[in-house]
Specification:
Two copies of one chain form a homodimer.
Chain A lengths: L4 H15 L7 H8 L3 H13 L3 E4 L3 E4 L1 H25 L6 H8 L5 H10 L25 E2 L8 E7 L4 H10 L6 E7 L6 E5 L3 E5 L1 H5 L1 E3 L1
Bound molecules: manganese (II) ion (4 copies).
One manganese (II) ion binds next to α4 of chain B.
The structure holds a DNA duplex (30 and 30 nucleotides).
DNA sequence: TATCAAATTTAGGCAAAGCTAAATATTTGA
DNA sequence: TCAAATATTTAGCTTTGCCTAAATTTGATA
């Protein structure tokens, strides 16, 4: 079955919300995620239900069927493999890849996907530290913690970021924070919970609570 | 200006027809090229004219404006660079690339295009022997001849093919004909103009007139 | 339990890109 | 020159995916 970009985006949104813990996904959440009007979501979930890609009911909300899950995770796989490809092979930076990958993830070609995967050596994580589902939809789950919940004095490693926007990623670049970077939490400011962080042997920077919530560490 | 896939495809079709010698392109020709109904073409050429990408009049037909030409040749450039990339870097065969390139040519990212071009070493020709326009739309023109017009006894080199369909390309594979292959025209059958051709030191094959019209040689 | 807020759906519309069938133009060529 | 063939346009319709505004439903809470 060939799906439209819109349909794939809805499935991906539901998939992402599922992973965030909500196994029942309501229309409002999908609408927020995709920045689409709830009335439009009503139409689309109905269509996806008819196509048996989700099961939807007013009370239960939406949940992916086995087939819907397969397509959603394949789309995420494509997105993250393309992002990795762009960074590894085409000199893109991590703040430049998301928008292009949003387009590339809809290209239909199994061979293309397989060959990109092979060329990259079957990577397990994308440039933002997000796990890449394998061909069966399975992916490595890392139990990380937001930097905002780390105790004073702890030494941690950055494993992923919770915001792929160019603005946020460039802010991190500016602060000197990158994937796999080692941080030491020097001080937690009591009045606003912002952090004074030492970046492994380099410098000390202040990070807002907002930023710290989006930096995941182990 | 961001164009839809459909708009880009129309511009590309007009561009291709222009290169075939027809500088005035009529709706019927566009319709045939894109396998679209002429009534639909009327709507679209009107829109492209309003957007100043073509100039259209009932009597003159359609002709690309400078901007329309720029976009058309950029789209062709993308198509052919992607085809080349797929063959050179991802183990695709020449009969597998066209359909995927039809999708990839619509991805919007100048950086992506430039990096692919750089990775490939600024190739001048695609896997079907078609010239790749450079960033300014200029491309190498090779004055080739259809094999169907070659005299008996001549020794020629295959430089391009006039049909990118998987069916035709696999037929050529089967016959042992490939780009840059050397052929000697042994005999022209008088009753149907089909050719007996020797493939450089390998074997002799019969080629139908139809096939010979689509094989370009120097 | 009555009320208010949030979520969902209905109703009606719009733009893009296609279609068919019928009406008009334009060419061609007998 | 005029009829037939070809090309173009009009009119009206379809699907997809979105929108706003106005119900309606559900659910929390006072
Ligand atoms: Mn992304
Ligand atoms: Mn990512
Ligand atoms: Mn092609
Ligand atoms: Mn080609």
């Amino acid at each position: 079955m060939i799906l439209s970009n819109a349909e794939e985006n809805y499935l991906k949104a539901i998939y992402a919300l599922n992973l965030l813990g909500k196994e029942r996904v309501n229309n409002q959440a999908i609408a927020d995620k995709l920045t689409i009007n709830p009335a439009s979501v009503t139409d689309m979930v109905r269509k996806l239900d008819e196509k048996k890609l989700i099961s939807y009911s007013r009370s239960e909300g939406a949940r992916l069927t086995r087939e819907g899950l397969r397509i959603a995770s394949k789309t995420v796989r494509k997105h993250r493999l393309w992002e990795t490809f762009l960074v590894e092979k085409l000199n893109f930076t991590w703040d430049e890849v998301h928008d292009v990958a949003e387009q590339l993830e809809h290209i239909q070609s199994d061979k293309l996907l397989d060959e990109i995967d092979k060329l990259l050596g079957h990577p397990k994580f994308d440039p933002h530290g997000d796990p890449i589902p394998d061909a069966n939809g399975k992916m490595t789950r890392i139990h990380s913690t937001p930097l905002s919940e780390i105790k004073e004095g702890s030494k941690v490693k950055v494993v992923s970021v919770g915001d792929n926007s160019a603005a946020f990623l460039r802010y991190l670049d500016k602060q000197g924070i990158s994937l796999n970077g080692i941080l030491v939490v020097k001080e937690i400011q009591s009045f606003d919970q912002s952090l004074l962080v030492e970046i492994k042997g380099k410098k000390e920077v202040f990070l807002s609570t907002e930023a710290c919530k989006k930096i995941f560490v182990v």
